[in-house]
From TrEMBL:
Keywords: Signal. It holds the Pfam family HbpS-like. It comes from Gluconacetobacter takamatsuzukensis. Residues 1-20 form the signal peptide. This is Heme-binding protein. The keyword Cell inner membrane does not apply.
Amino acid sequence: MKRMFTVLAALASFSTPALAQSSSTAPQLNITTEAALNMAHYAVGLAESRHLKLCIAVEDTDGNLVAFIRMQGAYSGCVDASIAKAKSAARFARNTIEFFDAARAQNLPIGFVPGILPSAGGAVFKQGDVVVGSIGTSGDTNENEQALVIDAAKHFH
């Protein structure tokens, strides 16, 4: 029980900043279907230029799948992993590598907390300072997946 309290206390440091207005009175910004498809295709182009075969998932801020591409040759096991990475990034409004690094540095079992996936390959993208969606990849090394989602997220405007 004490260990779970430690994990939850550590997660408190990952809290996301609130929007300026109450979510009950202001609509939440979210990625459009067209933008999600563009993001997925852009990520495929990056992956092809780097000779990677990936599954790529783009989700809205609630962690709902909006676009998905499984590149030819990508492992079928990567489908669920890419979606889970995007979902974790979206629901906590932060890149999944932050959970991965915290889990390793502090030996925290945060992977057991529902919705958190401590892994490389999940990133949020923003419109201004507001998260509007996320992207998750799976199918290659942590380094290659993380570099791709960061590069794809930077491309979003």
